Amino acid sequence: MARIAIDLHGGDFGPSVTLPSSLQFFRQHPQHYGVLVGRAELCRVSVEQLPPNTEWVEADPLGDQSHKPSRLLRHAGNSSIEVAFRMLEDQVVDALVSAEHTGVLLALVTKHGTLHSLLTRPVLASWLPTKAKPTVMLDLGASFSATSDQLLAYAAIGSGLFRTESSLPTLALLNVGTEYFKGPPELRNANQLLSEWPSIRYQGFIEASQVFEGKLDVIVCDGFTGNSVIKASEGALDLTLGSLQSVFNRGLLLRLLGLALKRPIQQALSPLDPHKANGALIAGSNLMAVKSHGNAGQVAFKAAIERSADLVNRQVIPAVWRELNRLIDDDVLD
Length: 334
Prior knowledge:
Elements: E1 3-7, H1 15-28, E2 33-38, H2 40-43, E3 54-58, H3 69-74, H4 80-89, E4 95-98, H5 102-112, E5 123-128, E6 135-138, H6 148-162, E7 170-174, H7 185-195, E8 201-206, E9 218-220, H8 223-247, H9 252-269, E10 280-283, E11 289-291, H10 298-313, H11 316-329
Parallel strand pairs: 1-2, 1-4, 2-3, 4-11, 6-9, 7-8, 7-9
Antiparallel strand pairs: 5-6, 5-10, 10-11
């Protein structure tokens, strides 16, 4: 069972999305327990009608001025996201899910949690839909650059998310080319160090065109690169779907053809649906905080809650810390 705090006021749509998604999830999964954090009056909900495996905690939305990370670090507030983080810090809940801004979540993870000694900031790790299997990619924007030692720490985090007793995760570094001499010095140095680490199955460099092949468990890059790849991929998918829709709206015959092909196209694209892959782990601390896209709809936000429950059940936070400690013990760092 996972006890999950939901920040109802985060994201572009707030309770109009987060509340129905949460209620649906906890009704479908009675083995999990939800702590819904928000202002009941603003959410237009009757607390007495909540599922029995949920409870309500009153808290206000985060004000516009309070979105500044520096203010969050200096002052204690009673917004829904801050109340949820205090419950997470006090181990009242196992995980937290929010669609709040990345900067807010990073600041609160740093304030309420303990970062591993190898990290100076948390890391955003997300599960990408691919041709074959989900692939973890990190960092996706928590930091805009990374040293070789930081890239190794990201690799250890990714390894912790995938390692099992019977197999080692496959991992690669994202670069502008696959040749060993390409890329900035930090990336080339990390490539050399990872190739000498026996605790992973390191595959060397890959290019952006290989990200979605599904042949890897973990892809490591700096936050600027990772965020750019994800945003560009989402834009390319939207363009493709929009182009298909435009073509099938040109005349009666094409409309009929579109209706005939609708189900096969949906089946082909379903594994690549980014809404079903929503939910990024803010990794590197002792807290389980999952970030949803700010513009997530109900399906996507529910997927983020499902992600948090799965990560709690798999006990990934202790696993990540073991891998970070293993990186130190194996004397791999530069």
